[in-house]
Amino acid sequence: MIFKYPGNEEIPQLLQLWKEVFGEYDGFWELFRNIAFLPDHCRCIAENGQVIAGLYWFDCRCGKDKIAYVYAVVTDPAHRGRGLCRKLMEDVHALLKARGYDSVMLVPADEGLREMYRKLGYEDCTSVEKLSCTAGETAVEIRNVGMEEYAALRREFLPENAVLQEGIQLPFLAAQAQLFAGADFLLAAWLEGNALHGMELLGNTNAAPGILRALGCEKGIFQTPGVNNPFAMIHKLQDSAVVPNYFGFSFD
């Protein structure tokens, strides 16, 4: 069993493992590889020449803290029950601490995984709201924005002590969603038929029905800052690490 950064032989194997375990969505993993993948931000376990577990991380910041957002943690179903996830996470925690990261964050897909990560030293740290609504009678003014403008506006709209997700996460986000701005809100969303899926709505959440009307959607669900739905978890690598109040995007 070898813990390593993936090389030319392991990268296709890891990509295939992600597809098999998480599913393939309109070329999503190829999109991830082409836009967001960096081999030195990925760790895997290889055994007998085959990748049997792996994960990836994005760089984030909260104030002066350097944060790793761990993403796409996967174990080959044929090798589950061997504690590989725990061993991989321990390896990555030690590696990231040595590389100067202050903390690690992740977003569990369900409560079972949330409980598993608690056993690995993670704790709940941010929450969100899920706002569902139908189109209002009156449309709000809304416009498409590019990545640079979106990033600048997002810094203004983010709550205090929020995690800043920029760098390669921005083009990866823009490849999956449309970016919009209004007078008092900022939105990243994708449309499916007459339904809108708001990955993040910052600012005036009361604008949601008017946004739907403006975009020609009958209904939508928006993720916004809030307190009712546990979202991201954190594992401190340094005692002085900041615990953020808000984490916005999960690419899972």
Architecture blueprint of SSEs:
Blueprint: E1 2-4, H1 10-22, H2 28-35, E2 42-47, E3 50-62, E4 65-75, H3 84-98, E5 103-106, H4 111-119, E6 123-124, E7 127-134, E8 143-144, H5 147-157, H6 169-176, E9 178-181, E10 185-192, E11 195-203, H7 208-214, E12 219-225, E13 229-230, E14 233-236
Keywords:
alpha+beta; globular
How does the overall form come out from the CA principal axes? Answer: globular
Can you tell me the residue ranges where pLDDT is under 50 for at least 5 consecutive residues? none
Fraction of residues in H or I helices: 25-40%
Report strand %.
25-35%
In whole angstroms, the N-to-C terminal distance is: 27 Å
Largest sheet strand order? 1-2-3-4-5-14-6
Radius of gyration: 19 Å
